[in-house]
Design a protein that fits this description.
Belongs to the fatty acid desaturase type 1 family. The protein is an all-alpha fold. It is 50% helix and 1% strand.
Length: 440
């Protein structure tokens, strides 16, 4: 039933576009504006120009050239077993022979265009499905239906989160106020502090693949890992507990990092972002008040069934997807420190994942590599942009395993990764996950 309901809802969506490596990139001394101009992006009027706030959310502040990338790679003893056509071994931890500008140039110009009407149509679709599912489940009120409702509604909560995520990146539209209003409504409705999360997620994108500076499911250095008590380690790496980590992360972040997404004085935020955090925290508290009022009117059991259980399903979706976009590849992938790290190399360690028919429901968030490199591209252009970039990426693009109707195999990938990927070395600028034998 859940599959039928969600599949039908997908039919309401607008039609989506589907679809040798390039020359050496420009020198890094060239201004980023010149690199952007070289790709002949569509001109923007004054109303469409990104303010500094939007740029800091969605894009790297500097494009790295191949000149900087060369000579940084350190061959991994765990990788490089696959020979290419020239007889050389491929090492995904090595510096790629292309730059960010070459990938950008390969992506069609229209893939960068944001259509606010199209974006809002997805919001309308998802909100109508959420309300329809809740109304139908409340009316039928059968224990044969509730589990199907929880799976379907939790997935739709996750879809709402992805649209709010696009608002945070500025890929929803070029209108900063529209992005903020829609993002606050969508994220607050599922108990996510929009600005607090938006800013920490910006930190994740700007530092993806960096051992210490990354913000989302980054590896623990060995010394920090071994300083954790056994129960903390067990909960962090044993199913299903990692699938329930997101609410705790919002309040306390990850081990080794302090701060809260609700506290304007947290080290997560700059002093000039204090008002943003107060606004999103106030919106979050307003939603808590609404839920408390509904609980009083409808009763705690009904609210548990209608909202609380789908919320937990949503949290599981969020934790699983964000983890698998950075872990669980068949070969171990590198993490970087110091001069070995660059925006491009960090982005190339992210992973695309196939979620079957759910791809359309949660707005192709599984198409993740190009999203990480260019988060300003709208989600409805990510598939086409990825296909266009593959010839440049070459073997640095890791083709996702097809999932079939449902992505059930990903639970196995997640479980195996949690058993093997525990910590990285305290030293070294190109490092790989190691396994704590006591945890296996």
């Amino acid at each position: 039933m859940a599959r039928l309901v969600l599949s039908e809802c997908c039919g309401l969506a607008p039609l989506r576009l589907r679809a040798g490596r390039g020359a050496i990139a420009a020198q890094s001394s060239a201004p980023a504006a010149a690199l952007s101009a070289s790709t002949a992006l569509p001109p923007r009027g004054p109303a469409a120009i990104h303010r500094d706030w939007a740029l800091r959310v969605s894009a790297p502040t500097r494009l790295t050239s191949v000149v900087e990338e060369e000579g940084k790679g350190t061959a991994s003893p765990l990788l490089g077993e696959e020979a290419d056509a020239g007889g050389e071994f491929f090492d995904p931890g090595a510096a790629p022979p292309f730059g960010l500008a070459e990938i950008r140039a390969a992506i069609p110009k229209h893939c960068w265009v944001k259509d606010p009407w199209r974006s809002m149509s997805y919001v309308l679709r998802d909100v109508l499905v959420v309300l329809g599912l809740a109304a139908a489940a409340a009316r039928i009120d059968s224990w044969l239906v509730w589990p199907l409702y929880w799976a379907a509604q939790g997935t739709m909560f996750w879809a709402l989160f992805v649209l709010g995520h696009d608002c945070g990146h500025g890929s929803f539209s070029n209108n900063v106020k529209l992005n903020s209003v829609v993002g606050h409504i969508l994220h607050s409705s599922i108990l996510v502090p929009y600005n607090g999360w938006r800013i920490s997620h910006r930190t994740h994108h700007q530092n993806h693949g960096h051992v210490e500076k990354d913000e989302s499911w980054h590896p623990l250095p060995e010394r920090l890992y071994k300083s954790l008590d056994f129960m903390t380690r067990k909960l962090r790496f044993t199913m299903p507990f990692p699938l329930l980590a997101f609410p705790l992360y919002l309040f306390k972040r990850s081990p080794g990092k302090a701060g809260s997404h609700f506290d304007p004085s947290s080290e997560l935020f700059q002093p000039n972002e204090k008002k943003d955090i107060i606004t999103s925290t106030a919106s979050w508290l307003t939603m808590v008040g609404v839920l408390a009022g509904l609980t009083f009117v409808m009763g705690p059991i009904q609210m548990l069934k209608l909202y609380a259980v789908p919320y937990l399903v949503f949290v599981a979706w969020l934790d699983m997807v964000t983890y698998l976009h950075h872990h669980g590849h068949e070969d171990k992938l590198p993490w970087y420190r110091g001069k070995e790290w660059s925006y491009l190399r960090g982005g190339l360690t992210t992973l695309d994942r196939d979620y079957g028919w759910i791809n359309n429901v949660h707005h192709d968030i599984g198409t993740h590599v190009i999203h990480h490199l260019f988060p300003q591209i709208p989600h409805y252009h990510l598939i086409e942009a990825t296909e266009a970039a593959k010839p440049v990426l070459g073997k640095y693009y890791k083709e996702p395993k097809k999932s079939g109707p449902l992505p059930l195999h990903l639970f196995g990938v997640l479980s195996e990764s949690l058993k093997q990927d525990h910590y990285v070395s305290d030293t070294g600028d190109v490092v790989y996950y190691q396994t704590d034998k006591k945890m296996t």
